[in-house]
Amino acid sequence: MAEESRTTIGGIPIKSVYTPEDVKDIDYKKEIGNPGEYPFTRGIYSGSKGVIFGQRPVLGFGLPEETNKRIKYLLQFGMASPSGMPSYNLTMDMCSAYGYDSDDPRMAQWVGVNGPPCNSIVDSEMIIDGIPIEGVYHGALSYAPNWRVAHYIAIADNRSIPRKNIAGATLNDSLHGPIGEGVHLFPLRGCLRLIVDTLKFVTEEMPYFRASDVQAYSSREAGCTAAQEAAFAIADQMEVVKGCIEKGLDIDEMSKHLTFFFACYSDFFEEVAKFRAVRKVWAQIMRERFHAKSDKSLRMRIQVKTSASTLPAQHPQLNIFRSGVQALSAIFGGASGLNITCMDEAFSAPTEESARIALLTGKVIEHETGIANVADPLAGSYYVERLTQDMEDAIWNYLKKIDDMGGYIAAIERGYIQREIANVNIKESHDLDSGKKIVVGLNKYQPEDSETDPIEIFDQDPTPTVKEMTKRLKKLRKERDNARVKDILAQFREAARGDGYLMPIMVDAAKALCTTSEIFGVLKEELGEDHTCLIPPDWAKGA
Amino acid sequence: MRKDRKIRILLAKAGPDTHVRGISILMSRLRDAGMETIYTGLYQSPETIVNAAVQEDVDFIFLSSHLGRHLALAQDIMALLKKKGVEKRIALAVGGVIPKRDFATLKELGVAGAFQPHTLVNIVIDFVNNYVVKADKKAG
Fold this sequence. Notes:
The complex is a heterodimer of chains A (543) and B (140). With 543 residues, chain A is α/β, with parallel strands linked by helices. Helices cover 46% and strands 6% of the residues of chain A. Chain A has helices at 28-32, 64-75, 94-97, 121-127, 145-158, 188-205, 216-221, 226-246, 251-254, 268-289, 318-332, 352-368, 382-405, 408-413, 416-434, 462-479, 482-497, 503-511, 516-527; strands at 54-55, 58-59, 87-90, 137-139, 167-169, 209-210, 212-214, 258-264, 302-306, 337-339. With 140 residues, chain B is of the alpha/beta class. Chain B has one domain (8-139): 3-Layer(aba) Sandwich (Rossmann fold), CATH 3.40.50.280. Chain B contains 5 helices and 5 strands.
């Protein structure tokens, strides 16, 4: 292969060999620094702490009690947060994610799909039945985040547990919906308002709860490159920080609650370089742009889920290996939390077996390989340091373009980010067709055609879930204090219509057994609905 | 299929399934291959998809499905096509997170083609062209 044609998967030019010449302009103290020291290229923990990573596969399906059973099953195999607390990483069904109750006829196909339904606090309690509020890191709560956080606060209040003792994290990043493949409900300014509202609450009352976890994973899975993923994530979080500052929050207080959720792809060194570079860029932005004073505010906490879209349906057992290698580069890159994707992503939601294998893959890495003993062991590699610097330059380049457009929201409104991602996807599809890019089993070494699947597949039939949840909803609506519900919803509407503080009312609403569609009905009406998506606006208009 | 014009394809998403990476690639690549594509937008139902297909006079509906509801959706779309009497004129293909075990059922429902994630776009383009040639032969 000709020297000049080599690039990383993301298109950064590379050479076939690196020497001290390639790193002579990189000053160790200034550009790299020790682990736990500015600019945190080598990780946010000091060397003495070594490498710390939690492991929590995403889970959820069927009825609340079925998800509860799966959580308990996987807790036995060591699901934990980066701080070592028992933990889980929960999704919700698509019906609740979009703010509908399970008995909405438009949603009959989507109840219990991709997560459990959650119509009210009763369902949230059932999902964590037997799992204490204190001493457990309650993870992700990815969809309808503020409403979900309100449930946990209400459950804690009902059990007389101090709110400050709730530990956990929610994605709470509706700004990434339109450039990923995630849920997107409200206009972007409305999304930002909801994110800031939740951040205000946790900043004031819940010191151990992360409430803005930028969902870069979703834009990466939608096709963007490593450098784009990093840049778009930072640009997104910058909007959130700006929003919080405008709301009067202290930068050093609110930044404790920020995290980033990245994907990890198959180009091993490019991913390592991405994690090292993105931490550095973030530290610089927090210090220089936002004038954060506390050293803690500069540390980017990174959660990683290994890529699902790199796992083809052909020879699916190979996906255990692919995910394992991706997990290694996440650890070498200094990720704090690790979530290994299951091998059956191309077929269905994970089976119990595939979820267990994914979780234990991380345990093998942790206990058997020794690679987690030393912080940032690839530092000093001529290639890794050069690539980290080149990655950083690429990230700054995108950030400058987005800045010039007026920031992340403006860049989406102009369709810039969507077009960037689409262009990468189109190029990749040509490269796969031509064989320039090879994915084993997909466009080379394909398996023989077969009418059966090579592995066991998880079944998700929403029909019994819809039936059961409809029955439960009917009972709930009949037995609760409906005058109180009406009163709280009226208060909520008034706050949403103006510039009111929503989270405290949502907590009251959760306690009063308001349902998801009641809360989201108000938000959709008062904030408006928006269906911006990944497809560039000018493409979708027709041929 | 009509020989006197470009092949027209409706790219469809149903319900809260927002995985549009595949559709965005097809939108561009099928156009480059000389076909016309129309995108339904997100959050559609079988009814709105079939109505759009009839209104836009398409030859194909491509349903993109990533949340495991392809069988129910395909069943509803095929039933609506039959109800409107256009099932011979408008064909349905399904792509996305679809296990092999469902391919036979999809075929029984009358679905013209099913594709797993990352199917090479060239394969999809060949499929459409071959299908159209066959359909034209049948029509004489």
